[in-house]
UniProtKB/TrEMBL annotation:
Residues 1-18 form the signal peptide. It is a multi-pass membrane protein. It is found in: Cell junction, Tight junction; Cell membrane. This is Uncharacterized protein. The lineage of its organism: Eukaryota, Metazoa, Chordata, Craniata, Vertebrata. Keywords: Cell junction, Cell membrane, Membrane, Signal, Tight junction, Transmembrane, Transmembrane helix. It comes from Pavo cristatus (Indian peafowl). The keyword Membrane applies. Gene3D superfamilies: 1.20.140.150. Belongs to the claudin family. Pfam families: PMP22_Claudin (PF00822).
Length: 74
């Protein structure tokens, strides 16, 4: 989940640099398009990392619930 948060932050910064209205960094529109696409890819990668973390936690909780030897509260 930490990796997902970091990727989301980096993706936001990269995407802001790729906007047509910003003059920071690159001035060529083709380069800005590539930077914006890279930011979008990082957003998707961060979302996938988040889905993995949430699914892993849900699977762990489900396995503990159906475990007959689990002594905790159900």
């Amino acid at each position: 989940m930490t990796i997902s948060i970091l990727l989301g932050f980096i993706a936001a910064v990269v995407s802001l640099l790729g906007l047509k209205c910003t003059n920071v960094g690159l001035s060529d529109e083709d380069e800005k398009m590539k930077v914006a696409v890279t930011g979008g890819f990082l957003f998707i990668l961060g979302g996938l990392c988040s889905m993995v973390a949430v699914s892993w936690y849900a699977a762990m909780i489900t396995a503990e619930f159906f475990n007959p030897l689990y002594t905790g509260t159900k």
